[in-house]
Design goal:
eight-stranded antiparallel barrel, single chain
């Protein structure tokens, strides 16, 4: 595990999400957990998406690549936040600018 991966391990809660068309309530989209074995658990509406992740530095940003059922989505890390441009590739509808903030 590289230093960027060690920095992002932890639990995150939803901070904001735009264009929510599939969810009745933002609370249904509750938590993102990045485990130190490079697996993740994205909890929403009483269900979970489980897959793998890797993180690396790309100059000004740390990027996390998430893989779920052979679909890859990239997210950007900034301070204690992870931001996805979209999560539609994971079958979660028209969700944009999905931001999670790290729990202490």
């Amino acid at each position: 595990m590289n230093k960027y991966e060690k920095e992002v391990v932890g639990e995150y809660e939803l901070y904001k999400c735009d264009s929510i068309t599939i969810l009745k309530n933002v609370d249904e989209f509750s938590k993102l957990v990045l485990n130190d074995n490079k697996t993740f658990d994205l909890k929403y509406n009483g269900k979970s998406l489980n897959g793998n992740w890797t993180a690396n530095d790309y100059g000004d940003w740390t990027i996390i690549d998430f893989e779920y059922q052979n679909v890859f989505i990239r997210a950007q890390v900034g301070r204690e936040e992870i931001t996805f441009n979209t999560l539609s590739g994971f079958g979660l509808g028209n969700l944009e600018n999905v931001k999670f903030t790290k729990l202490k």
